[in-house]
């Protein structure tokens, strides 16, 4: 496909998006997050096919944060999910109950005392679900045992495979001889987000360490291992390395001979973004998340949109916060909090970006973009089909009401 063909397709997409939100023209306050549910379902199906089965994928929901997306995952057969906050955990448990399915959820963050008690309280409200928490270190493991009291708590050990952010090195965990009272060991979490698409050899070296640690633990009865021992790795930038690793290999024809169950946990791929281009090409992803923005000022050589760092990719790097759908010649400059200036290389572009014109932005990083918005508009094709709340942040909040949870 030529660049001209690609631009033409993007402009058709932008026009369809504009038609979808046209019924809200008089009430649409921008910047606004718009989610294409057809693209969401396409991307979920693509990842399930790539993984080989829904059971091989535990998607991280920090990207999506919406009941309508969780329901789409459930309809596709997903039962194992991953979250980072108590808000996300509550949303998942509430949605699973509404869908009448029992979910298995990992809180993939080193919880402190109050948050740990909060997770236990949620587990008590939805006893049909299985909840696991992450242990960052042997000391944190002991603390989790103390905080859980008489409440049973299932843990995965966070193994640092070189990312240097959380978790403990394999050698430090290897000294663990027994699981503290009140806890059971469900597996190992070896997130390798520091690896990119070209880092297969280094990623496989880390997986070898993870498997060796798992093998050592499975030979220690005092660790009280719960059910199938799970090895959980890999987000959007490294899932392909894990799916290609022989030590994790499994298929319908030849199930894995290993005494553990491996899963990957990419979440960004459900919506897709500019940072995920290799995964998008590998899976054939469609862009599902857009930010609707309007021109608020036009001057010589520039037009300014209302989607600053509080509307799209607040953690932008040198690539910029976004791209303007259908307008590859427009170059976003550095955003301020409320403003996003666009460089106009040709004076003729000013006529298409007059004051109030709608522009469609593709986020560079969709996870942080979604977290900036309180609600999303949902579309299918060029039709608006609904809207709903987004769960954001770590802070406590009132539970969602039934009205807020309405889905199309």
TrEMBL record:
UniProt entry tagged with the keyword Aminoacyl-tRNA synthetase: no
Gene Ontology MF terms: D-serine ammonia-lyase activity
Keyword line: Lyase
Stored InterPro entries: Ala_racemase_N, D-amino_acid_metab_enzyme, D-ser_dehydrat-like_dom, D-ser_dehydrat-like_sf, PLP-binding_barrel
Gene3D superfamilies in UniProt: Alanine racemase, D-serine dehydratase-like domain
UniProt superkingdom: Bacteria
Segments passing through the bilayer: none
Protein family per UniProt: Belongs to the DSD1 family.
Descriptive protein name: Amino acid aldolase or racemase-like protein
Taxon lineage: Bacteria, Pseudomonadati, Myxococcota, Polyangia, Nannocystales
